[in-house]
């Protein structure tokens, strides 16, 4: 899966003020196992992506298309 997907999962979780521990518990997995997903250390299955999107309360499409720059203007 595209590296951006893993980054987007982390960014969305952080913007929603959810901890890794909370998301991991909702997914019935260890925090370290969930951390591997956010870092892209493991391949993400479609079914796990759907589960994550439900916990984050966003669509899977949103995870793919999420762009942090839409929320924060990064001009200097």
TrEMBL record:
Q: Give the top-rank taxon of the lineage listed in the UniProt record for this protein.
A: Bacteria
Signal peptide residues are none
Cited SMART domains? HTH_XRE
Which Pfam families does this UniProt record tie to the protein? HTH_3
Residues annotated as domain HTH cro/C1-type: 9-63
The entry's keywords: DNA-binding
Q: Which InterPro entries match?
A: Cro/C1-type_HTH (IPR001387), Lambda_DNA-bd_dom_sf (IPR010982), TransReg_Diox_bact_type (IPR050807)
Is DNA-binding given among the entry's keywords?
yes
Protein name per UniProt: Helix-turn-helix transcriptional regulator
